[in-house]
Request: fold
Amino acid sequence: MKQKLMLILFVVLLLLPGSATANDPMAEWQPKFDPRGAEHTYLLSCVGHPAIEGVRVGFRIRDRIWEETNGRLFVDYRPMSQLGGEMDVIGKLRMGAIHGMMSSSVAAPNVSPRLGLVNLPFLVGSFDQLQQLRKDAELFEEYGAEALRSGIRVVDFTAYGGYGWATRTPVTSLEEAKGVIFRIAQAPVNIDMYRAWGLQFTVMPWPDVPQALQTGVITGLDHTPTVTGTANFFNTAKHYTQIDYAQGLYIHFDQRTLVAAPTRRLCEKLCCALSQKKATRPGLQVRSRISEK
Reply:
């Protein structure tokens, strides 16, 4: 009888209001306003976790646009791969199924090959070099010109640290790295780079990485300390080799050909707000969690 009562109590606790949202990672990021009265909705996607500053900015954009348009335009921001992996989302952006996207720089060349320049090894390897690119208005315009001709505007970017290797075993040389199976993004520049380095790799969408790392399908990944720590991958890949061959970026895309007239003018307000968001210097709080043993 006592066991039955305990079981009933457990079921009741599960059904209490708030229980369903207790484990919802998006619960704390819900808007403090009711978006149902908006005249227009701007669907914005990102695969990253809002614990990263470069991802969290999307919520500030949402709130600012709501304020600037007096509640007429709601930016429905969907981080954490809610709309799929980056290649899927790029396809949706091209077709007009979504309005905007914060794309990782490694996936961005699938929109325009020119965007892959920031991923070339040691070309833009530091935050200061990245800022030089962004502050040069003429250079930045040329950087996004090819994408614009295809109907996608490069508005801005936010940064989240330098790239390196998180691995299951220590890597102190290129020879040791050859024993690691790296996960790399679906990006032409990265594929060519790993082939030139003579390293083992597999191209894999970001949502598939956790299981692949746990099961040993991959034994290392190419990413920044911030993203690796936020995703809790240091629990499995306990060693990190800082390389800083490139800066991790989320590049802000806007679908230029999707809408017109009043909706386009409202979307232009979004672009203005985005363009005022400078590249964010990534925090170092995750780096202390890196194991160097």
Observations:
- Confidence is low (pLDDT under 50) at residues 5-22, 277-293.
